[in-house]
Write a structure and sequence with these properties.
Layout: H1 8-12, H2 22-34, H3 47-52, H4 81-86, E1 94-98, H5 104-114, E2 119-123, H6 135-146, E3 150-153, E4 161-164, E5 167-170
Parallel strand pairs: 1-2, 2-3
Antiparallel strand pairs: 4-5
Length: 171
């Protein structure tokens, strides 16, 4: 449904030290081109749309969407790390990142937000933050974040978010 190939890898590659991830997309597109594969962009793969093409073979790259429906209250008040990374949402000056996945997006979003001068707290219910990010990648994130207004809170579960005046209150 997107205007170009790559999905979440495009977002990942926006961090300068992860730019090499673009090679994954470039290689796959080159392979498709070499095999004469036609790729349709900006298209929802509805049954009627697919059948109108009269294809021999159909491969649907479904991609993924972040799960932001995790709170007992206030899901409509939060945004995903992908929305920060893509630039679709501008961060505020005081941001809580609740990282329930423990992978790169939480730290990428923290880095982007911290570079604006905002105060950032990265919170996880795990006993350590970003357990899915291996040391070779975690160390550069930490070096980038340690000299900014970023704190890390472990072993806490975010249950709800409520509006309180012009701010949000996390419980």
């Amino acid at each position: 449904a997107a205007p170009k190939a790559g999905g979440q890898i495009l977002l990942t590659a926006q961090t300068p030290r992860r730019r090499e991830m673009m090679g994954i997309i470039e290689w796959r597109l080159a392979q498709c081109e070499a095999m004469g594969v036609t790729i349709k962009y900006n298209t929802w793969a509805e049954e009627s749309v697919v059948l109108a093409e009269d294809p021999e073979i159909v491969v649907i790259a479904t991609g993924g969407l972040p799960n932001t429906d995790v709170l007992s209250e206030g899901n409509e008040l939060v945004v995903s790390a992908w929305e920060i990374i893509s630039g679709d949402v501008r961060p505020a000056s005081n941001v809580l990142i609740y990282d329930d996945a423990g992978d790169h997006p939480g730290l990428q979003a923290a880095e982007i937000i911290a570079k604006t001068g905002a105060k950032v707290e990265v919170m996880t219910r795990d006993r350590s933050f970003a357990p899915e990010v291996m040391a070779m990648n975690l160390v550069p994130y930490m070096r980038e974040l340690q000299n900014k207004a970023v704190t890390f809170t472990v072993t806490f579960l975010l249950e709800a978010v409520r509006r309180q005046g012009n701010e949000l209150l996390a419980t």
